[in-house]
Design brief:
The protein is α/β, with parallel strands linked by helices. The chain has helices spanning 39-51, 65-71, 90-97, and strands at 12-16, 56-61, 77-84, 109-112. Helix 2 (65-71) runs parallel beside helix 3 (90-97).
Length: 114
């Protein structure tokens, strides 16, 4: 992964909790099909797949529309917590417009902070 090309990385994409070994549960590949074209997102998918770990609860700080569209395609997610500083402009606006993609029944949330 070439972080230098990304400039300042302001997004923190991390997963917490809910990790189980692939051998202990039945689950399909952790790769999105069709293949994710974004190199950063694909690296995250390939890392989880190679480790055989579920995504668990995903925290995405600085969520934009691009990342939200990707997050909702991931298999084996317990819930998504997406955080944006401003849902009325910039990347946050893109996420807010795609809020309907979240699965609120499982606890997915898009949160605005100031």
């Amino acid at each position: 992964m070439q972080i230098g090309k990304l400039g300042t990385l302001v997004r923190l994409l991390t997963t917490t909790g809910g990790f189980e070994e692939r051998s202990s549960i039945k689950m399909s590949s952790l790769l999105v099909d069709p293949k994710t074209k974004d190199p950063l997102f694909r690296q995250i998918e390939e890392t989880h797949d190679s480790l055989g770990k579920c995504y668990g609860t995903i925290l995405d700080a600085g969520t934009g529309g691009h990342s939200l569209k990707w997050l909702v395609t991931l298999p084996n997610v317990e819930k998504i917590l997406a955080v944006s500083a401003d849902l009325k402009s910039g990347e946050g606006k893109g996420a807010n417009e795609l809020r309907y993609l979240l699965n609120e029944e499982r606890g997915d949330q898009l949160i605005e902070t100031s």
